[in-house]
Amino acid sequence: MAYAATFSLVTQVLGLTLCLLSLCCSAFTPQDYSDALEKSILFFEGQRSGKLPANQRATWRANSGLSDGSSYHVDLVGGYYDAGDNVKFGLPMAFTTTLLAWSVIEFGDSMHNQIENAKDAVRWSTDYLLKAATSTPGALYVQVADPNADHRCWERPEDMDTPRNVYKVSAQNPGSDVAAETAAALAAASIVFKDSDPSYSGKLLHTAMKVFDFADRYRGSYSDSIGSVVCPFYCSYSGYHDELLWGASWIHRASQNSSYLAYIKSNGHILGADDDDFSFSWDDKRPGTKILLSKSFLEKNNEEFQLYKAHSDNYICSLLPGTSNFQAQYTPGGLLYKASESNLQYVTSATLLLLTYAKYLRTNGGVATCGSSKVTAETLISEAKKQVDYILGDNPAKISYMVGFGKKYPQHIHHRGSSLPSVHEHPERISCNDGFQYLHSGSPNPNVLVGAIVGGPDSKDSFSDDRNNYQQSEPATYINAPVVGALAFFSANTNPN
User: Fold this and answer.
1) Locate the Glycoside hydrolase family domain: which residues (predicted)?
2) What are 369-409's pLDDT values in tens digits?
């Protein structure tokens, strides 16, 4: 008995020690992740275009773009500005919406008191995308504002006097990439609202199907149709095949309509299913599509989807140091590094894929196969956590790359509305050229764009908190959208490993 009691006491002490070690060695608590989750969603309120609602929390913003589309006899009020400018670009807005919806679909159960805010963020975009898709038969509006003119000014959205031209794709000027991504966004969002607002959900799905049919029937890249206003900003470098497969996959998941399954089976090889690609972004959807489709193989052991599981494994293994497929680049501090401009967009999108795939594997008792080794869901979660923690401040510079989170974060972000005085503090109009004094000012931004994740550090973990260095200091909606799901996961999983 004495031996048993001693053994029990040792076990308890060891367990407590391990628990304390786990707590002391974890950079952030569940409360920290919850705080970051709330802020990551709040960011989208700072990006809103249109008439702001009574419950608007980013109160330094005011109404803007209220006549968007009117000179073309179409209502294109609403939606999001993509980054630090005042343009509404359809391709990144739709991709943002798809990933926001995916975050809610996979991790909404962990969002608790933030779930309604997350759904509001999705709806703000889908309300706009519905108008863009249904206002004119046979056309999809894909952009508001001339970006070249917009970028020659530094002015608040509330003061805009640059041309608010609208651009559309049609049968004569196709845009399969932007149309199929819009279809994906509407279909994914239809899942988000399926239970809470079935009528709205049905409208989203019905419109998604029509837009997808348009994308598939009139094939072509929107870069070829309206290239002068989308390139080099959001040129479709990867073409449109990846979006067609991505769009069909989301409509199939939302509708369970067998015709979309047949489309995927018959067109997959043509549309990029056989290609391994290791970068998931607003431009290239291939890794995300394969992980989305691998769910069917894992759940039903459907051999026809085995290809997608294999390619998903290849993508995941490419991110994991020590595996035979490893080919990613990391900074000395451990951050995934893809590009010098807005690198954190690749980090947050990869993180969402790591966690989503980990969820699919866990649910179905699967593993990822990396050559001769097997990788568990826990390994994927651990890698995702490193990336999220780095963004939040566990990095060599000890700076949070999320504005408003932690004690040290970027103060001079490349963002017009944030860097200029709020219209509430400075009601007089600030003209196009007069705004540049604020761009070049050394003072911190007067309006804190809470929750914004900026482009991030370079390949050596160095960061310049400088408005003129837009590559590192500019936030974007598609950087934030995937991290919403990741933060929800970690807020609810105290010890995910």
Assistant:
1) 33-487
2) 999 999 999 999 999 999 999 999 999 999 999 999 999 99
